[in-house]
Amino acid sequence: MMHTKILSGAIVALLATTGFTGVAFAQSTDLHFVECGDTPSPVHVETIKKWEAANPGYTVSVEVVGWGQCQDKVTQLAVAGTPVSLAYIGSRALKQLASNDLIIPMPMTDEEKASYYNYVADTVTFDGTQWGRPVAFSTKALYWNKDLFAAAGLDPEKPPTTWAEEIADAKAIEDKTDADGFGVVAKTFDNTMHQFLHWVYTNNGQVIDADGNIVLDSKENLEALTALRDITAYAEEGPTAYEQNEVRAIFLDGKLGMIHAASGTRGLLADAPFKWGVTLLPLGPSAKGPGTLLITDSMAVFKNTGHEDKAADLANFLTNPENQSAYEAEQGLTPLRPGPAVDALVAADANWAPFLDSIEYGGPEPLLTDYVGLQNSMIEMVQSVVTGAAEPQAALTKAAGELEAFK
């Protein structure tokens, strides 16, 4: 989940230059739903059966497409004038799709927006309206290997709470054990940008402000990029060869002291051959409270199918509180909405707390018209710094200038 391949330049150019608005098709009673992943969600399968029962005459054809091709496919079909009805996509793509008139707006009432955790609605909002229904939510926390902490002479029950402590702990593990101290993600992949945003949002930083101004080149973000550079000295060798799942695999093998990762890593550690813990992401010097990057995936309804209203109704049904809660439990996702069920979740497993307590000061994934351009610039910035090819200030200023073209 939460893993979207960067779109090819050809598709971006097509979206930006064709001005294609699609051709209206005759009313169809079959809704084509593309779900990204390897297999259909059993919860979604059952939920769709209930929706079909309540909407006689309408059927839903579910097509499962791997994450590496999913978003490309639905975008290509929309541009070609043969759109799917509904797709499960990364929310980062919504602004680009909406700006090219490929999806319909899906406005929320104030009550609906207030039902979500802080900033969740912001991940699907621009120009004052919403363009999708959140269906998956990811927040991040720090995982640490208690055995490596002990071997390095650190207190295994005292994880770092600040960047300075995190860097010092990583150095101790690097110097005193056979493992590396911290997992740095810097491969040419979207989660390199996401991992950098963990540092941004644990230091009160932003990429784009509420007025649409690019504010990447800031004191807070310079501190973040500098800290990432500094901890790279104690990371796995050659971080530009690793994306987040590959770094996580090294941690699961007991060869990394610390990583930043989502809630799904908890399940993978159930049979780990070492003691581990999970806590809030350490904070930078400008932080105002515990933070995290807030990423959502969404249900987007495409235009020109002749049954947009039914597709929107299905999207709302799949993501209503009852059905969404069942899906989150199935997938091990951070809940989108607070409530008694979440309280019970934390009471049963305290390791959930860091993924929820950091939301208040977290920040959403930036919504820019050219999200691929955003990702490419941010990835290049990170890679140039962790490889020593550029100083943090120069890399930050260069990326900030590039982002002006992607707003």
Describe this structure in words.
- This protein has 407 residues and is of the alpha/beta class.
- The chain folds into 2 domains: 9-137 and 295-363, 3-Layer(aba) Sandwich (D-Maltodextrin-Binding Protein, domain 2); 140-291 and 368-406, Periplasmic binding protein-like II (D-Maltodextrin-Binding Protein, domain 2), CATH 3.40.190.
- The protein contains 17 helices and 12 strands.
- It has helices spanning 9-18, 42-54, 67-80, 94-99, 110-115, 146-151, 163-176, 190-200, 219-232, 244-252, 265-268, 308-318, 321-331, 340-348, 353-357, 371-386, 392-403; strands at residues 30-36, 59-65, 86-90, 125-126, 129-130, 133-138, 140-145, 180-182, 256-262, 276-279, 293-301, 363-364.
- Strands 1, 2, 3, 6, 11 and 12 form a 6-stranded mixed β-sheet that branches.
- It starts with 8 loop residues before the first helix and ends with a helix.
Q: Beta-strand level of the residues, as a percent range?
A: 5-15%
Instruction: From the alpha carbons, calculate the radius of gyration and give it in angstroms.
Output: 21 Å
The pLDDT mean sits at 92
Q: What is the number of strand segments?
A: 12
The CATH architecture of the largest domain would be 3-Layer(aba) Sandwich
Which structural class do you get from the secondary structure elements?
Answer: alpha/beta
CATH superfamily of the largest domain: Periplasmic binding protein-like II
CATH third-tier fold name of the largest domain? D-Maltodextrin-Binding Protein, domain 2
CATH class of the largest domain: Alpha Beta
Query: How can the largest sheet be summarized?
Result: 6 strands, mixed
- Tally of domains: 2
Unreliable residue runs: 1-26
Gross morphology: globular
What helical percentage do the residues reach? 40-55%
| Helix/strand order | HEHEHEHHEEEEHHEHHHEHEEHHHHEHH
CA(first)-CA(last) distance: 26 Å
Count of helical regions: 17
